Amino acid sequence: MFRPAILRQAVKALGQSTRPAAPRFLRPLSATAPRFQKDDSDDPLIKATTRAPEGAAGESEGKYARTDENVVIEYPDDENMPPSPVVQGRGGMHFKRTLAQFSLENRVTLVTGGARGLGLVMAQGIVASGSNLAIVDLNRDEAGESAQKLVDQFQKENPGLEDLPKVTAHYADVSNPDSVNNALSEVLANHGRIDHLVTSAGFTENFDAISYPHDRIQKLWGVNVDGTYLFATGVAKHLMERKAPGSIVMIGSMSGAIVNVPQPQAPYNAAKAAIRHLASSFAVEWAVHDIRVNCISPGYMLTALTRKILDENPELRDKWISLIPTGKMGVPEDLMGAVTFLLSDASKYITGADLRVDGGYTLT
Ligand SMILES: NC(=O)c1ccc[n+]([C@@H]2O[C@H](COP(=O)([O-])OP(=O)(O)OC[C@H]3O[C@@H](n4cnc5c(N)ncnc54)[C@H](O)[C@@H]3O)[C@@H](O)[C@H]2O)c1
């Protein structure tokens, strides 16, 4: 969920901002101004509540359930982005029995944003489940290196297997329709067909809503929303032309259902809500063509990038973790099973669903 290379470098959360500090004052849990003040101490309903009097919680009242524009999260330049390793010993070492319907054998899957981060690890799970793979990413070189690493890891985890998966790397800027069409043609020329799509290309950044530069909002929505839309419609069109069934998984975020605190990120939250509802809308529109569309909404996941940011900012890490019922952030491997399930025949009757992989964050 983090955006490389934008305007701000390394987290300076909570009070280390160069911006002037916002005035601090106590406020009630609801910020809605009362229409008029009246003495309601005799009101039987008020008397019956266990509501604490305003201000009873002291300084911490409302502290954690608000965005704070003083929280500034800054991201490394592209050159300083930490590369993602493929994970070891988690996806493969097969020959454990499992339901055949979870298999993706003889399928071709396209993963956008698969060069690194969550996309790369989901791609690894997809390859481990038997699929051939096309990684599509803005970063062509890293996509190529990751493709090779995936095949190497597969070989290590499946010693003696001669039939190796075909994994290719392709360039696209997912927000650009021509670039998307070129990438789709390239993938089809290489693999002959596409059965599954996972849209993981995306990023976030943090500005308070008032200061958010408009061109950056458009860029964020362009990559997260348009990019998802363009790839999903492109793949669905191909499946309809082939008269073939297929399934698509869009990577949203828990931010599409809740508002993260304390870092402000309104356009990202709206983008992820849009992705979730696009999945539902496409699911209904394409059900008749046997094309399923589902959404995965991850919570806070420890990628190479989030690990770097949070290692440098333990206070922010502790705040995030305090809000997660399971008491820990997720790891990218936690998405391997979820994505395989939703792509495979194991979820044949599931479409338009939003699968939250968030350690329970959105429940509280
Ligand atoms: N990491 C988290 O905690 C988290 C949580 C919830 C949702 N998500 C979502 O998961 C997805 C992946 O996030 P991540 O943490 O792996 O990010 P990441 O930055 O590690 O990886 C994103 C990948 O997308 C590629 N990309 C970016 N813009 C692109 C464009 N215009 N065209 C093509 N490729 C592009 C990048 O090159 C990179 O390989 C995003 O949609 C993000 O919003 C992440």
TrEMBL record:
Region (Disordered): 32-63
SUPFAM superfamilies named among the record's database cross-references: NAD(P)-binding Rossmann-fold domains (SSF51735)
One term of GO molecular function: oxidoreductase activity, acting on NAD(P)H, oxygen as acceptor
InterPro entries, sorted: NAD(P)-bd_dom_sf, Sc_DH/Rdtase_CS, SDR_fam
Gene3D superfamilies hit by this protein: NAD(P)-binding Rossmann-like Domain
GO biological process, one term: mannitol metabolic process
Assigned keywords, A-Z: NADP, Oxidoreductase
Record-linked Pfam families: adh_short_C2
Domain of life: Eukaryota
Family: Belongs to the short-chain dehydrogenases/reductases (SDR) family.
Full protein name: D-arabinitol dehydrogenase ArbD
Taxonomic source organism: Aspergillus puulaauensis
